[in-house]
Amino acid sequence: MSNSTNLNQQQGSGTARDLVGLRVVAVHAHPDDESISTGGALAHLARRGADVLVVTCTLGEEGEVIGETYQGLVNDNADQLGGFRIHELARALEILGVRGEFLGGAGTYRDSGMAGSPASRNPRAFVNSGERAVNDLVDIFRREAPHLVLTYDPNGGYGHPDHIRAHEITHLAAEQIDIPRILWAARLREELEANFADRIPDGWTRPAPGELDAVDSTDTWVEMDDVVYAAKAEAMKAHATQIWLADGSISPTNPHSATACGPVTTYALSNLIAQPIIRREHYCIGAGLPLDHGADIASGLDF
Question: Is residue 193 helix, strand or coil?
Fold first, then answer.
């Protein structure tokens, strides 16, 4: 079976099950990356019948926390944030309608922190994972036999060492397994900048020119309909220690509401830089079968 339907034709169809038999694996560094970078594609593919697995490489132990409720969980205090984020991830994956597992099992590899962080010297840090992490992913690829793999570009999107390492092990593992296509998540600069909010919450900041990761061209994209867009936003909201949506909502984790005014929903990470959840998720071909510009990400795959 093959599929060549343009994603634009799928928008609004909602119930099409044309991807039954397609196996997809997304490789991500931390809980929340799957929703921020690929949540639209994951939900979209799952709704169309694909079997989708998210592989998360660390627990995100080095993350900061939004909201005062769980500030004490961070690594400098109780060092319990990673365990808490397991439950945020489980809820996000449930919303997206996909499966999930941790590379090597939960807690095998630790969040390395940002570039230069002392956390990178931990022998369990993901950046020090060596051949073991590659072999762990090879085992998953052999078991799942994916037709399509989603991950980051060589710079990890915005340069996070764990994102870069996830890219590296994905491609190293793929050298041992026949993966028809690998796609790298990306944001198209033109669309990103066109969707910045007109008004942002007090205390948040607007991104400086060129501050947000973006590219000037991509190969394909997912055009999210209302259902998929809502699923992506809700999955992001499930990661409440890490992501603050400016949609007026509150949660036990962050009991403070924020509201932005703009063409799409706005969110921020702990740096409080306002970013849009744009209606398209873009991807570049990282390896494998080519496709026509803008064609469906499953186009040309036999499953």
Answer: helix
